[in-house]
RNA sequence: GGCCCCAUCGACUAGCGGUUAGGUCACCGCCCUUUCAAGGCGGCGGCGGGGGUUCGAAUCCCCCUGGGGUCACCA
C-alpha cells in the first residue's frame, strides 16, 4: 500500500507549487492503487489566513486532484487539520523528553536572537539544565519550548529515492524546536507524527525540505518508527532561476483560474515540469500521466515556469482537446464577467467556433470577440484608417448588401467577390473596410462568417452607422 | 559564508558508452489567405570548463565553475 499526502499551509493564496507537488503525490498514489491524503498544516497562528484552507481545497478539486482523506471529506486518521491534533503533538513531545531525545529550553526570542548573533545558531545550552529543574520550571508555568536533542557526536543517513544516500554529520543538524511555547508543534514534529499516524509511506515534497530531512529521520529513530521513503521534487523557478515567488511570477492558482486558464492545461503543463513522456508527447490526460509515471523519468534540474508555454498549451486545449460545446460552456462565466450576453446557445457555439484559433485563454474570448455580443465595442486606430480609405467603396456596397436576400456565407462571398471584380480592386480593399465597419477591428475571423453570424439586420445597421 | 542538491539550445526536455545530439515553446522565413490567428514546411540555437576511465564519451569518475536550496518558537 502506498499512501501519499500533500500538506499545505493555509497562509495565503492557493499556491502553484502546492498543485505541482500535489500532482505527483496524486499520481504516485493512483499509480499504486494507494491513497492520497490532504492534511492542513495550520500550526503557525501568526500566519494563518482565514478562508485560505477552503480556497486551497477548492483549487485542488478544480485541478482534478481529488483526495481520499482530508479535512472536508474525513477519513480514518482524522482530524486532518493539525490545529485540531494539538494533544497528540504534546504527548509525543513529552514521550521524547522521557526517552532522552528532547529537552526543555527557556530562552526568550530576544535571547535567542542574541545567541544567534554570537554563535551563529542555538548552542544547545539548555541541555545542561538538570531534568528535575526543567520539569519544575515547566510545572510552574515558565514559558519554554521543547527541542530535539540531536545525538552528538554521530552521523545521520538520509536516503532520497531520487538522489541516493547522503550522510550528515550530526554537528550540522540543529537542536530544532519541536514544540513551541504556545503549545503548537513546529513542522518537524507535526509532519513526522502525522505521517506516521496516518500511515504515509511515501513523502513526496519540494526540494526545499531536503536539508531538514535528517531532522525527520532522527525523529523517526527517536520514536522507534519506520521512516517513509522520501522523494524531493525540484523547485519550480522564476525566470531568473530562483525559487518561484509571488513577487516574480504568478503563484496563485486563483489567478490562473481568473485569467481563463483551463485546469486541464495547467495540470498538464505542471506535469511537464520535471517529467517527460517516454514518447515525447506533451499533451496528455491525467490518466495517461498516471499510467506513464515513473520516477526514472523525473529530472532534477529546477524548471523555470514559462507562462508563454502554458498559454500555448491552454490554446491547444481550447482548439484541439476540448469539444466545441465544452469550450462554449467554459467561456460563459467570462462573458458574464465582461457584462456580455448571448442570444442563443447556437449563436455562442458558432462564435466560439469562429474564434477558436484566436484566443489562448478563456478571458481573451470576450476581449477579442466583444463585437459579436454588443454594439458597444471599441474601434482601433487601424480600423478607423481602413474605414476612411474604403468609405467610397462601402457607400456603393451598401445598397447591394441591402438588396441581398440570401444571407449565407457562400452567397455573401459571391457578392463581395463580384463587387470587387466589378470595381477592379482586390477583395481585401473591400473586405478590410467592411471588416472595420462591422467589428471595429482588423483582426477578426473570416469576413463572410462574421457577416453571416451577425445577420443582415445588425450588419446593415453597423454599416449604416459608419456611413453617416 | 557553512552544509546540501543540481548542471543538454533563451525556456521545458529526450538521451542512460558508438546518434548528422531528437522533440516542444519562443524567435525568424516560406506556404495557405479577405485581416488576424490557427495550421503546414523550413531555419536559428545546446552538451559550462579541465582532468581522467575507455578503442570510443553529452552519457562513468574527480576537480573547478555556475545555478539553486537551507541555515526561525515559518512551513
UniProtKB/TrEMBL annotation:
Q: Which GO terms describe its biological process?
A: glutamyl-tRNA aminoacylation
Q: Does the keyword ATP-binding apply?
A: yes
Transmembrane regions: none
Origin species, per record, is: Thermus arciformis
The gene name reads gltX
| Protein name from the UniProt record | Glutamate--tRNA ligase
Task: Recite the UniProt keywords alphabetically.
Answer: Aminoacyl-tRNA synthetase, ATP-binding, Cytoplasm, Ligase, Nucleotide-binding, Protein biosynthesis
In its UniProt record, a GO molecular function of this protein is: zinc ion binding
What top-tier enzyme class does this entry carry? ligase
**Motif position, 'KMSKS' region:** 243-247
E.C. code: 6.1.1.17
Amino acid at each position: 500500500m502506498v499512501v501519499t499526502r500533500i500538506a499545505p499551509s493555509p497562509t495565503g493564496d492557493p499556491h502553484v507549487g502546492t498543485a505541482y507537488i500535489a500532482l505527483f503525490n496524486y499520481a504516485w498514489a493512483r499509480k499504486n492503487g494507494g491513497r492520497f491524503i490532504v492534511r492542513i498544516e495550520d500550526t503557525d497562528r501568526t500566519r494563518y489566513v482565514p478562508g485560505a484552507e477552503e480556497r486551497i481545497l477548492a483549487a485542488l478539486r478544480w485541478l482534478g486532484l481529488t483526495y481520499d482523506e482530508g479535512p472536508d471529506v474525513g477519513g480514518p486518521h482524522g482530524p486532518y487539520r493539525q490545529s485540531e491534533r494539538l494533544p497528540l503533538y504534546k504527548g509525543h513531545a513529552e514521550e521524547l523528553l522521557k526517552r532522552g531525545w528532547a529537552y526543555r529550553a527557556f530562552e526568550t526570542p530576544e535571547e535567542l536572537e542574541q545567541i544567534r548573533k554570537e554563535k551563529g545558531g542555538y548552542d544547545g545550552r539548555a541541555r545542561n539544565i538538570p531534568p528535575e529543574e526543567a520539569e519544575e520550571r515547566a510545572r510552574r508555568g515558565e514559558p519554554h519550548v521543547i527541542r530535539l536533542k540531536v545525538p552528538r557526536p554521530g552521523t545521520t543517513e538520509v536516503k532520497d529515492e531520487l538522489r541516493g544516500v547522503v550522510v550528515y554529520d550530526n554537528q550540522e543538524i540543529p537542536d530544532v524546536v519541536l514544540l513551541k511555547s504556545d503549545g503548537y508543534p513546529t513542522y518537524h514534529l507535526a509532519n513526522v507524527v502525522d505521517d506516521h499516524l496516518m500511515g504515509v509511506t511515501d513523502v513526496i515534497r519540494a526540494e526545499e525540505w531536503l536539508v531538514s530531512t535528517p531532522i525527520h529521520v532522527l525523529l523517526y529513530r527517536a520514536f522507534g518508527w519506520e521512516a517513509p521513503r522520501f522523494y524531493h521534487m525540484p523547485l519550480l523557478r522564476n525566470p531568473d532561476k530562483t525559487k518561484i515567488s509571488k513577487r516574480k511570477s504568478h503563484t496563485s492558482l486563483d489567478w490562473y483560474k481568473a485569467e481563463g486558464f483551463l485546469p486541464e492545461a495547467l495540470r498538464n503543463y505542471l506535469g511537464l515540469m520535471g517529467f517527460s513522456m517516454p514518447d515525447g508527447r506533451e499533451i496528455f490526460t491525467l490518466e495517461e500521466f498516471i499510467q506513464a509515471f515513473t520516477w526514472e523519468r523525473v529530472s532534477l534540474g529546477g524548471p523555470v515556469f514559462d507562462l508563454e508555454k502554458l498559454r500555448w498549451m491552454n490554446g491547444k486545449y481550447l482548439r484541439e482537446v476540448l469539444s466545441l460545446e465544452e469550450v462554449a460552456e467554459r467561456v460563459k462565466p467570462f462573458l458574464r464577467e465582461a457584462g456580455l450576453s448571448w442570444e442563443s446557445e447556437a449563436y455562442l457555439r458558432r462564435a466560439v467556433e469562429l474564434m477558436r484559433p484566436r484566443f489562448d485563454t478563456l478571458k481573451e474570448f470576450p476581449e477579442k470577440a466583444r463585437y459579436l455580443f454588443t454594439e458597444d465595442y471599441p474601434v482601433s486606430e487601424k480600423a478607423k484608417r481602413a474605414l476612411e480609405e474604403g468609405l467610397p467603396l462601402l457607400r456603393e456596397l451598401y445598397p447591394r448588401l441591402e438588396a441581398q436576400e440570401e444571407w449565407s456565407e457562400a452567397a455573401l462571398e459571391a457578392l463581395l467577390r463580384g463587387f470587387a471584380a466589378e470595381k477592379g480592386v482586390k477583395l481585401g480593399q473591400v473586405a478590410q473596410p467592411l471588416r472595420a465597419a462591422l467589428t471595429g477591428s482588423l483582426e477578426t475571423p473570416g469576413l463572410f462568417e462574421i457577416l453571416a453570424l451577425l445577420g443582415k439586420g445588425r450588419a446593415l445597421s453597423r454599416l449604416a452607422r459608419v456611413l453617416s
